[in-house]
Amino acid sequence: MRLRTTVIAALAALLLAGAAAVAGCGTSEPTATGASAPPATAAAPPPRYEEQAVDKLQRNPTAVDPDAGVRTNFDPNAHADTTDPARLPQPRTDAEIRAELRKSGIPSGQQAALTPDGLAVAPLGAPDVVRAVIHAGNQIARLPYRYGGGHQTWIDTAYDCSASISFAFAAAGLLDRPMVSGDLARWGDPGPGRWITIYAHGEHAYMYVAGLRFDTSGLRQTGSRWQTAPRSGAGFTVRHPPGL
User: Fold this and answer.
1) Which of 20, 38, 134, 193 has a Cα-to-Cα distance from 105 of 20 to 30 A?
2) Which among 177, 182, 193 is positioned nearest to 239, based on CA atoms?
């Protein structure tokens, strides 16, 4: 009986020791001396965004430029009252504008200008079609005269009087074929035009464009069809392109 009691007590002691060992497994690791490590402390919460930003600026003071946005050479008079008419920009007078145009060589109003090499410069106020006539006239202004030249083909080496006018008109979209002088005497509207006036009869034709005469007879005088000097219109029929 005593032996049984002793065995039961020994078994109970072994069971208690095993339970204690199982309960302590995984909660701590043995140290070098076999002692258990101190219990782990809870991790500190991460710093807030504002705290991180302040810490970054404290560790990197050059991230903030104390002079940023500061104006140098500040003029206290820059914000002075500009409602005084004397301080406001004044518009240029017509006389000043005309003087500048004369210096630039660009004509104003309705009068074209003539360059030293015999080419015409359209005035600023000229319509696009008038500019096109002048531009085309410049292309053949110094080409020689030849009777019948320019009537068989638009691009030729010489042009007679009516073909010269026809070439300039066709380039501006006013004609679709060359005309002889007699045709030009019947073409368009009667009387002088505002921008272009044709003088024609059965043997000759010339015209004025923005105040300049375009005439093959001028080749003998200056080497260019463009002329500033007028000529008599006696015996010629006066016509003009519609609307011009």
Assistant:
1) 193
2) 193
Query: What are the structural domains of the chain?
Result: 100-228 (3.90.1720)
C-beta atoms surrounding 214 within 10 Å = 26
Tokens read off for 2:
């005593």
- If the chain, 244 residues long, is cut into consecutive pieces of 10 residues, what is the mean pLDDT of each piece? 51 50 42 46 53 51 43 52 61 70 67 93 93 96 96 95 97 96 97 97 97 96 95 97 96
How would you classify residue 235: left for phi > 0, otherwise alpha for psi between -120 and 50, otherwise beta? left
Choose among 203, 201, 184, 202: nearest CA to 241.
184
Given the DSSP bridges, would you call strands 237-240 and 196-200 parallel, antiparallel or unpaired? Answer: antiparallel
Contact (CB, 8 A) for 170 and 154: yes
In the chain the beta strands, taken as DSSP E runs, fall at 113-114, 120-121, 189-190, 196-200, 205-209, 212-214, 226-227, 237-240
Tokens matching residue 84: 């005084």
Phi/psi at 159 (5° precision): -140, 140
Match 């003539």 to its residue by tokens: 114
For 14-66, write each residue's pLDDT tens digit. Answer: 555 544 444 444 434 444 444 444 455 555 555 554 555 555 445 544 444 44
Dist. CA 138–CA 37, nearest whole Å: 106
